[in-house]
């Protein structure tokens, strides 16, 4: 019997693997959350497949998204990253990632994990949607508008509502697997 999946997952083997093992699973680790936020902001204006194809290069280029390492990147490192053909060579996005690492570290120094910062902005820390078709899933919502606005206020960069909604979906804060998808229940079980 064939497993039912969200239809977007059927576009390629790498997309299916990402859907089945990562997307929508609750992530609590700050480094993993920072990595995902960085990849999502890099995706802005591009396809997710493009980013998936470059994840190993991103990990290598950004020192596995180690918050302390990335927060210390200087102009010379930005220049190196801008010349790295393995990643998206957009200076504004690169600088946003560095800046966001600094903001997350500042939160941690106040005793607030990035996970807690995010979950406190979502009713009950998690949103469970019950979509029947992928076409029902929004690109952004009033909640992502609110969270993006707060993040910008708190100093984060390149965190528009669409980027934030994609990030919240991917990291399990919002379960947007369609109900028929075999991952819908898995994502629901993971939050308990």
What does it look like?
There is one protein chain. With 192 residues, this protein is an all-alpha fold. The protein has a single domain, classed as Hypothetical protein, domain 2 (Endonuclease III, domain 1). Helices cover 55% and strands 2% of the residues. It contains 11 helices and 2 strands. Strands 1-2 form a two-stranded parallel sheet. Helix 2 runs antiparallel to helix 7, helix 2 crosses helix 10 and helix 9 crosses helix 10. The protein is globular, with a radius of gyration of 16 Å. The two termini are 28 Å apart.
Topology of this structure?
Blueprint: H1 13-21, H2 30-43, H3 48-53, H4 55-61, H5 67-71, H6 75-82, H7 91-109, H8 114-119, E1 127-128, H9 142-153, H10 161-170, E2 174-175, H11 182-190
Parallel strand pairs: 1-2
Helix pairs in contact: 2-7, 2-10, 9-10
In brief:
This protein has 192 residues and is an all-alpha fold. Helix content is 55%, strand content 2%.
Helices, by number, come to 11
Strand order of the largest sheet: 1-2
Q: Structural class, judged by helices and strands?
A: mainly alpha
What is the H-and-E element order?
Answer: HHHHHHHHEHHEH
Let me know the largest β-sheet: 2 strands, parallel
Strand fraction equals under 5%
């Amino acid at each position: 019997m064939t497993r039912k999946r969200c239809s977007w997952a059927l576009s390629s083997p790498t997309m299916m693997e990402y859907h089945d093992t990562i997307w929508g699973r609750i992530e609590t680790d700050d480094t993993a959350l920072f990595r995902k936020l960085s990849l999502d902001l890099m995706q802005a204006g591009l396809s997710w497949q493009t980013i998936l194809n470059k994840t190993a290069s991103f990990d290598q280029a950004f020192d596995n998204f180690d918050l302390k390492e990335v927060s210390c990147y200087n102009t010379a490192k930005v220049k190196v990253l801008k010349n790295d053909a393995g990643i998206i060579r957009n200076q504004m996005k690169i600088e946003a990632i560095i800046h966001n690492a600094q903001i997350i570290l500042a939160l941690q120094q106040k005793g607030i994990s990035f996970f807690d910062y995010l979950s406190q902005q979502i009713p009950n820390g998690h949103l469970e949607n019950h979509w029947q078709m992928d076409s029902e899933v929004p690109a952004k919502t009033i909640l992502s508008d609110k969270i993006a606005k707060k993040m910008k206020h708190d100093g984060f960069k390149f965190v528009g509502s669409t980027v934030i909604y994609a990030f919240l979906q991917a990291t399990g804060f919002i379960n947007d697997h369609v109900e028929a998808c075999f991952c819908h229940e898995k994502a629901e079980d993971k939050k308990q």
